[in-house]
Amino acid sequence: MADRNNGDTTGRDDSGRFAPGNPGRPQGARHKATMAALALLDGQVEALTRKAVEMALAGDGTALRLCLERIAPPRRDAPVAFALPAVATAKDAATAAAAVLGAVAGGDLTPTEGGHVMALIEVYRRTLETTELEGRVTALEGGDKWNWNNDLPSSRRGEAALPTASLKFHGIKS
Hints:
Layout: H1 32-41, H2 45-57, H3 61-71, H4 90-105, H5 111-140, H6 148-151, H7 164-169
């Protein structure tokens, strides 16, 4: 297409689509109108800021909101502080979940914050469960890849023997 005002080639094919290898406007390139507006505002930033502050101080609600949004933007995420017991086992995860529910009920956490913390606890519990199951399967298969009893948290050591009933339940003969 050579009938455009912006040059002989536009990087488009006959149907007007961008040709292969030509993504269009380069990344970061600005539109002509944006460039013109920036040129007009160049050097006037201080005066405009001063005027916005003056209007906000005079009681203009829109100017006040604009100034406050620039001074202190709304927080997207904030850390939460509350007592959470250590989590080393699935049983500990249940205790931690109860602590989160208590914090939400007591008003120390919002329900949304409590939900986010509960999701973290659940992911950690599933990680513990998967690690333990992997160790049990490896032990059943007779592999020495992982000594699951020694790699468990200290509160779980000594539970090396799997219950025979669970082995029979899953169809594995002991």
